[in-house]
Specification:
mainly beta, six-stranded antiparallel β-sheet, five-stranded antiparallel β-sheet, 42 strands, 5% helix, elongated
């Protein structure tokens, strides 16, 4: 019989009653819990660790960052061991370490355990960042900010002409990291050097070096690339700005231009000398002087007192009015002004050999008003003058053994020259598809210029991409085809009377090519026109275009289409 309370039994003995009472024993559950507790505390608790890696200052996600997560793993009796997991962030800067496991007792009693995070790529790096293990959220990502890797680059600035270091150059530095820009500036030291400090390795750096009297130079690169450049690649070359300086020399008394005067220019102790016979106009030109140079001029001529100009820089001098660029020489003796003409108009650049009493005293060139001055003459002296100029018949009879005192009228001091008739200008030969007369390389397209004179003509060709190929830019590529100027004639030295210039393409691109002929330096008689011939040779044969050109002219009426 089952009962929830007590059980009783009664015997049949009438004299004595026996009762058996049985009680159910109560069992204490706390003892069971105590026995099970160690097992419960050892139950593994799964955990996912999700990390978002971003740049420390901007918060921009960092992709492809190698990330290591190190956390303590605790055994109940074995102590602490450390587990390291690694992976690389995705394009969103995220990395996940899933299915980590720690026992329940560690979660309950080891909340101060520290996990370490290291992360980085070629541009950013952070090592052993400490966080509480429990601070990693159970849902979502923990943001880890890491700084960019910084570096220092050393650069130099030199003069592009002589490659000497340039001190005190102003340097502007623009650093751009993740679209955010920061500007700074510095100056080069006495060795022309400067450095860029603490710039993020993957940030873009634009360096602009500038100094008065020079063209700026710029380098733009990431600091990572900059740190891998050679010293030459990290050197900025400043090209000196240059100008042409014209000086004028006149007779102080007559105010006429004086050809043949000596002008000495001194720059930093170095001197240059010229004669004012440029075109016979009493003007001298010093070419390609640095804008920042300080100029000192002195002019002299026989029978004249020397004179100077106030000190000036090139930049200031070229902007002065002519009167302030003019040096007036005071004649020391009596002077006579003669005029050369072509019969009706003044003629400049005429060479006049002056004889006094039978001896050659001086050679004077007429200025742009046809004038030249003879000084140091006594009234009784006999004067003879022989006037010559290329392309003209000389005149040695107009003033011959003339007594100085008799030269009282302008007509008596006017020496005309007559022009020599121009000989027929040779014309280019008649040609067909034969190209044996053409110099230079050939290809699928070839453009050649021929003429017959020591004058410097220049061939310019514009390709279908708009590139101009000529003496200053001898090579240009358009659509895979490269044009090359391989002949440039009569430029400075080695002039010839049968010059040619030649541009060729091995594989020309399709389109229209435009040809221009420029008269760069005229070396023939004034007023003369030159014949030239442009030959264009392609797979269809040869075409010749003939024309004429004069001093200072440009002809550009030729075009050619390649299909």
């Amino acid at each position: 019989m089952k009962t929830d309370k007590n059980l009783s039994f009664t015997s049949g003995d009438s004299d004595q009653e026996h009762v058996l009472v049985l009680k159910k024993k109560k069992i204490n559950l706390w003892w069971l819990l105590l026995l099970l507790l160690p097992l419960i505390l050892l139950i593994p608790i799964p955990r996912d660790i999700k990390i978002h890696v971003e740049e420390q200052s901007s918060g921009i996600a960092i992709a492809r960052a190698y990330t290591v997560f190190t956390y303590p793993e605790r055994g109940l009796f074995s102590g602490i061991s450390y587990v390291s997991l690694s992976d690389t962030t995705d394009n969103s800067g995220n990395v996940e370490f899933l299915g980590l496991s720690r026992p329940l007792w560690a979660h309950l009693f080891c909340k101060t355990d520290t996990a370490m995070v290291s992360s980085g790529n070629e541009c950013h790096k952070a090592e052993n960042l400490a966080y509480l293990y429990e601070s990693f959220p159970r849902n979502g990502y923990k943001n880890i900010g890491i700084p960019p890797i910084s570096a220092t680059a050393f650069l130099h600035v030199v003069d592009a002409d002589d490659l000497q270091p340039l001190p005190d150059v102003d340097v502007k530095i623009k650093t751009t990291v993740n679209g955010a820009s920061e500007d700074s500036q510095t100056q080069t030291d006495p060795a022309g050097a400067f450095d860029i400090n603490n710039v993020p390795l993957c940030g873009e750096v634009q360096v602009v070096a500038s100094r008065e009297g020079y063209e700026n130079d710029t380098i733009t690169a990431s600091l990572f690339d900059l740190s891998n450049m050679s010293d030459e690649e990290k050197t900025l070359h400043l090209v000196p700005l240059k100008g042409n300086v014209k000086v004028v020399v006149r007779n102080l008394k007559t105010k006429t231009l004086l050809a043949g005067a000596t002008v000495i220019l001194t720059i930093n102790g170095a001197t240059s000398t010229l004669k004012t016979n440029t075109n016979g106009v009493g003007v001298g030109t010093f070419d390609s002087l640095r804008i920042s140079s300080t100029l000192n001029f002195k002019a002299s001529k026989s029978n004249y007192a020397d004179t100077t100009l106030p000190e000036s820089t090139v930049a200031n001098f070229v902007n002065l009015p002519e009167d302030q660029r003019t040096m007036y020489l005071r004649p020391l003796t009596e002077s006579f002004v003669f005029i050369n003409t072509d019969g009706s108009s003044p003629m400049s650049g005429v060479k006049n050999q002056v004889y006094i009493n039978g001896s050659l005293k001086t050679t004077e060139y007429s200025n742009n008003q046809g004038q030249f001055t003879v000084v140091g003459v006594m009234p009784s002296d006999k004067i003879s003058i022989t006037a010559t100029k290329s392309g003209y018949n000389s005149n040695s009879t107009k003033v011959k053994n003339a007594v100085a005192s008799s030269l009282t009228t302008q007509d008596s001091r006017t020496i005309p020259l007559t022009k020599i008739p121009d000989p027929p200008t040779p014309t280019p030969p008649v040609v067909d598809n034969n190209t044996s007369d053409l110099k230079g390389e050939s290809g699928d397209l070839r453009i050649n210029l021929q003429w017959y004179s020591r004058t410097d003509l220049d061939l310019h060709v514009y390709d279908p991409c708009g590139n101009e190929i000529f003496y200053s830019k001898r090579r240009a590529t358009c659509g895979g085809g490269t044009g090359i100027l391989d002949l440039d004639a009569n430029a400075i030295i080695g002039t010839t009377t049968r010059p040619q210039e030649n541009i060729y393409w091995l594989k020309p691109s399709s389109g229209t090519y435009k040809v221009k002929v420029v008269c760069f330096k005229f070396r023939d008689r004034p007023g003369q026109m030159l014949n030239y011939n442009v030959s264009i040779v392609d797979k269809n044969g040869r075409k010749d275009y003939r024309g004429t050109i004069g001093n200072g002219q440009t002809q550009q009426n030729i075009s050619h289409t390649v299909n």
